[in-house]
Design goal:
This protein is 31% helix and 19% strand. The protein has 109 residues and is an alpha+beta fold. It has one domain.
Amino acid sequence: MEDHNQDLEQQINIELSEEMAEGVYSNLAMIAHSNSEFILDFIRLMPGVPKAKVKARVILTPEHAKRLLGALKDNIRKFEDIHGPIHQSNDDGPSFNFPMSFGGPGGEA
């Protein structure tokens, strides 16, 4: 039984290239799903420009999507405990108007 617990506590070495470590900026996320996966498209939307580019796409299993949701909630709570509440702008006004369909299955962001 002890050997089994030690196996579960093994560490994973994660490699992060210099290019990947720079990251990409995204100010919009579109989420779609099928019966077997969640698709997260991270988009950079520039003011006054009618076209936006997907900068990264992440495809997750439903189980991993739920784990991501939990981890994000936990990190937002920790952030707000230190820095105070995150205030959301009113993004549903007339200046924030873009097509909600990118040709894939529907979802919400």
